[in-house]
Give the backbone structure.
Amino acid sequence: MTKKILVTGGAGYIGSHTCVALIEAGFEVVVVDNLVNSSIESLRRVEKITGQFIRFYRGDITNKADLKRVFEDHNFYAVIHFAGLKSVADSVEFPLRYYQQNVFGTLCLLEAMQQQACSKIVFSSSATVYGEPASLPILETFPTNPQSPYGRSKLFIEQIIDDYCQAEKQASSIILRYFNPVGAHPSGEIGEDPLGIPNNLMPYICQVASGQREFLSIYGDDYATTDGTGVRDYIHVVDLAEAHVKAVDKINQVDQVQWFNIGRGQGYSVKDLIQAFEQTNGIRIKTSIQPRRDGDIAEYWADPSLARQELGWKATRDLKQMVKDAWHWQQKNPKGYEE
Ligand code: NAD
Ligand code: WQD
């Protein structure tokens, strides 16, 4: 029988790509999303790519009645939990909103799962839980020290899930700590669609390339890195989506909770990313060196070997593919899903 997966936040950037990967792997997908940072159009596009209908609930995970309805209508094999707010800067300004949406939202979700005896959850965590690492690459066993309310909300959720899985005999969880997801589905049908001015590097580069922004600010060129600019472990969103399929495949064999870094294990600087974009896509990106951005770390990248050994997952798409697919999506959808 086809296994049904509930995807919270499934209309969002990573959620929509994961819906494609799940459907292609033979799962049935149900999405709950309040569309606070996404558009229903993304799911229509997922349907177009896969040829499969997606059952969608417009609902809020902090609303117990919304969740009850979803769980009463279906029996889920597992939940993949993306729903939440993700801006580091906003979380500093509105910490209570972040704890409410992310932490309380997850509590409501776990309660609804408990009531319906659904006991498997894959959770979207973030490399931001590590804070500044003492050495590189980062292993899952490194100490955690998140530097923002957003990062702390992710760590609190991890701990709540851990406690829950210790207490409930049937429960198990896989916690994926993503590094820097970028790129888009190669069809150009789905991709990242930030509201307003992008905070993140790749969508900003794409908007400079398309003429929507005049230049890219490079936040600091005096870090102790190869070329002075910040270094990150960029990972193609389709590789990331595939990690979720591997996690769902594995979750039944997990005793309580397992944590995995999801990155490529390779660091690229801001200048590397710009250069790859320019060379691959044949477009010049105008830049301006600006002061460092508050809270930024000089460099970090993952050791993803545990995910390879235990999940049988490995990223296969390189930087060239990331910048190519990001630009393809941008060109096809200059205003994101709005059109
Ligand atoms: P996104 O904003 O595109 O997707 C999140 C989705 O959740 C959106 O569709 C939004 O409408 C929905 N949502 C938010 N609050 C909700 C609520 N209360 N009820 C129902 N739906 C709600 O973000 P994304 O980049 O796809 O990220 C997905 C998850 O991965 C998030 O939890 C994020 O924190 C985590 N993550 C993202 C990154 C990244 O760089 N994109 C890195 C690490 C972790
Ligand atoms: C990458 C590099 C910037 C924009 C964030 C969150 C993190 C995670 C992923 C959710 C840095 C530089 C950026 C620009 C620049 N999200 N930059 N000009 O900060 O590594 O991670 O997204 O969990 O929690 O903090 O990603 O894309 O913003 O920055 O020079 O206009 O690009 O300084 O070195 P970051 P980013």
User: Anything to note?
Assistant: The two ends are 38 Å apart (CA to CA).
